[in-house]
Specification:
Order of helices and strands: HHHHHHEHEHEHEHHEHEHEEH
Shape: elongated
Distance between the termini: 126 Å
C-alpha cells in the first residue's frame, strides 16, 4: 500500500480506540436506577512544613496599668472632726475669706483697682505683713495671666500657700518618756485661756487612760488656782497647789517631784501670765525652766540629769480674738522662751483666726492644738489640711 493509505488507516484506528475508551468510561459513571448521587469529599489540604522561628529578642510584655487607688473613706471620728472645724471657723470665714470671695464674684475684669482691693483685704486680714505680702504676690501672678479673674485659680494658690505655711514639721508627742512622767509647761499672758486649755488637756489624757497631775504654778492669782482645782475635780485629775504668792518655780519643782514619786503619767504645769518687762519675764521663765529640769533629773546619774534642759514640751497659748497682737505676743515670748508648740484658743468666736497663718509663717513653730468651742472636747489636735479646708470652704453666694 501506498504511504497515504497507511496514514489514513492509522488515523482511523486512533479515532476508533478513543471512542471505545470514552464509552467504557461513560458507562462506569452512570448511576443504577434509584441510586442517589454522592457528594465527593474535598481532599484535605496539605499541611505546611513547620517553620523554625528566627532567634531574636523576645518582645516585651505590655506593662499592667495599676488600678486607681481609691481614697479611703473618712471615719465617723474624722467626719465629726471636719464638721467641728467647719463650725468653729465660721466667723473666721466671714472675715477676710468672705471679703475676697465678694471681690471675685462674677469673674470681674482684671484691673489695677481689683489688685488694690485684694491688697487692702489681705493687709487688713490679721495675717501679718510678711504673710500678706506673700499672698499678694501669688494672687497678682494669677491675675496677670488673664483679662478676667479666675476665682478657682486664685483660691488654689491661696489654699496651697496656706497649707505650706501651716504644715510645719511636728514629730508626734511622746507621752511615755523614759524616765517619766511627761512634763508640759504652759505659758502665755493672762486671759488667753491657759488654765482652761490645761483642764481640757487633762480631760483628753484621762480619756486615754493616763494618770494626770495638774500643777498650779500661777501663784499670783488665787482665781487661777481655784479654777485649776475645779478642773481637776471635774476630770478626775490630781492637783498640786502651793501657798499664795509662793515662788512659782518651787511650786512647779515640787509638783513634778510629786508626779514622779506618785507614779503619774502626765504632769501639766500652769504659769503666771504677767508681762511687765522682757527682762523680768525672761528671768522668771528661765528660773521655772531650770526648776523643771532639776525636778525631772532628781535621782538620775549626773550625765543623765545634765542632759535634761527643761520640760518635755512648752506650749505658748494665744488668743485668736486679738488678731495681730497675738503675733506680737508670740514674737516677744520667742525672745525669752524656747517653746515647742502653739495653742490657738477662741477660734470659734472671732473673724481674726487668720492670725494663725502669720504666727506660723513668722516663727515656724507647729500648732499643736486649737480651741474651736467651749465644750471639753472642743480642744482639738491641729490638722493643717482640715483647717485649710474649713477656712476656705465655699461661701454662700461666692464666686
Amino acid at each position: 500500500m501506498s504511504p497515504a493509505v497507511i496514514a489514513i488507516v492509522a488515523i482511523l484506528g486512533a479515532v476508533l480506540i478513543g471512542a471505545v475508551i470514552y464509552a467504557v468510561t461513560r458507562r462506569g459513571q452512570e448511576l443504577p436506577p434509584g441510586a442517589e448521587p454522592r457528594m465527593l469529599e474535598p481532599e484535605a489540604p496539605e499541611r505546611p512544613e513547620p517553620v523554625t522561628p528566627v532567634e531574636g529578642p523576645t518582645p516585651a510584655k505590655p506593662k499592667a496599668v495599676p488600678a486607681p487607688v481609691a481614697k479611703p473613706a473618712e471615719s465617723p471620728a474624722q467626719r465629726e472632726q471636719r464638721e467641728r472645724y467647719l463650725k468653729g471657723l465660721a466667723q473666721t470665714r466671714g472675715g477676710f475669706v468672705a471679703r475676697l470671695s465678694r471681690l471675685f464674684r462674677g469673674r470681674p475684669q482684671v484691673s489695677e483697682d481689683l489688685k488694690d482691693e485684694v491688697e487692702t483685704v489681705l493687709f487688713t486680714a490679721d495675717i501679718g505683713v510678711r504673710t500678706a505680702q506673700k499672698m499678694i504676690e501669688l494672687v497678682s501672678d494669677v491675675l496677670d495671666k488673664s483679662t478676667v479673674a479666675d476665682p478657682d485659680a486664685v483660691w488654689s494658690v491661696i489654699r496651697k500657700a496656706s497649707l505650706e505655711i501651716l504644715d510645719v514639721p511636728a514629730p508626734p508627742l511622746d507621752y511615755d518618756p523614759t524616765p517619766g512622767p511627761y512634763v508640759l509647761l504652759m505659758i502665755g499672758v493672762n486671759g488667753v485661756g491657759k488654765t482652761t486649755t490645761l483642764g481640757k488637756l487633762a480631760a483628753m489624757h484621762k480619756a486615754a487612760g493616763r494618770k494626770v497631775l495638774l500643777v498650779a504654778g500661777d501663784t499670783f492669782r488665787a482665781a487661777a488656782c481655784e479654777q485649776l482645782e475645779v478642773w481637776a475635780q471635774r476630770v478626775g485629775a490630781g492637783i498640786h497647789l502651793g501657798k499664795e504668792n509662793a515662788d512659782p518655780s518651787s511650786v512647779i519643782h515640787d509638783g513634778i517631784a510629786r508626779g514622779r514619786d506618785e507614779g503619774y503619767d502626765i504632769v501639766l504645769c500652769d504659769t503666771a501670765g504677767r508681762l511687765h518687762t522682757k527682762k523680768e519675764l525672761m528671768a522668771e521663765l528661765g528660773k521655772i525652766r531650770r526648776a523643771c529640769a532639776k525636778a525631772m533629773g532628781r535621782g538620775l546619774a549626773d550625765a543623765e540629769a545634765e542632759a535634761i534642759a527643761g520640760p518635755h514640751d512648752t506650749f505658748l497659748v494665744l488668743d485668736a480674738t486679738i488678731g495681730q497682737n497675738a503675733l506680737a505676743q508670740a514674737e516677744l515670748f520667742k525672745e525669752t522662751m524656747d517653746f515647742t508648740g502653739l495653742v490657738l484658743t477662741k477660734l470659734d468666736g472671732t473673724a481674726k483666726g487668720g492670725v494663725i497663718l502669720g504666727v506660723c509663717d513668722s516663727l515656724r513653730v507647729p500648732v499643736r492644738f486649737v480651741g474651736i468651742g467651749e465644750r471639753v472636747d472642743d480642744l482639738r489636735e491641729f490638722d493643717p489640711e482640715m483647717f485649710v479646708d474649713a477656712l476656705f470652704a465655699p461661701q454662700e453666694g461666692a464666686a
